[in-house]
Amino acid sequence: MRTKLFLLAILTIGVVACKKTPKYSSVPRINYRGITTNTVTSGSSADFVQISFNYTDGEGDFGYDQQGSNYDIYFLDRRFKDTADFSGLYLPNNFRKEIQSRDLENGISGIITFQLDANRFLVKRPNRPNGDTTSFEVYIKDLAGNESNRITTDEVYILP
């Protein structure tokens, strides 16, 4: 009888020990990795900057609301920090499908890279005829409304 109780206790401990607890917080976290280039031509349709960061999230509940009001990535051109709001981007459908196919019990982590085109986001200010400089502040937001920490990119030089 003692042996059976001992084996049952070991089995119970083993099952409880195997229960996975999330590795990450329910609040997303990001860490800056870098940008692809630090020089673009103002308004060029051929130039762009790719911003890359690592992410973690305990539930993986972002990247789902493609039609709704919740963007996944928010960014701000720091030249306009006092006068502009953050702009938002949705993650691409393939990213969303990848998250949905994962076992989210331990949360998710990975790398996100997104692109800002010079013709839309990297135009020099009119009072800077010889060029301009900016950086971007970035964060992500999950469906529960949790905002990650904010990161700031390296400077980008915008040539005339």
Q: What Rg, in angstroms, do the CA atoms define?
A: 22 Å
What is the N-to-C succession of helices and strands?
HEEEEEHEHEEEE
Low-pLDDT windows of residues: 2-19
What portion of the residues fall into strands of 2 or more residues? 25-35%
Structure description:
It contains three helices and ten strands. It has helices spanning 2-18, 93-100, 118-121, and strands at 29-35, 39-41, 48-57, 73-77, 87-89, 108-117, 132-134, 136-140, 151-152, 156-159. The strands form three sheets. The protein has a four-stranded antiparallel sheet, with no helix packed on it. Strands 1-3-6 form a three-stranded antiparallel sheet. Helices cover 18% and strands 32% of the residues. The termini are far apart. By secondary structure, the chain is an alpha+beta fold. It is elongated, with a radius of gyration of 22 Å.
Structure keywords:
32% strand; four-stranded antiparallel beta sheet; alpha+beta; disordered N terminus; single chain; three-stranded antiparallel beta sheet; 160 residues; 10 strands
Indicate the topology.
Layout: H1 2-18, E1 29-35, E2 39-41, E3 48-57, E4 73-77, E5 87-89, H2 93-100, E6 108-117, H3 118-121, E7 132-134, E8 136-140, E9 151-152, E10 156-159
In brief:
Helix content is 18%, strand content 32%.
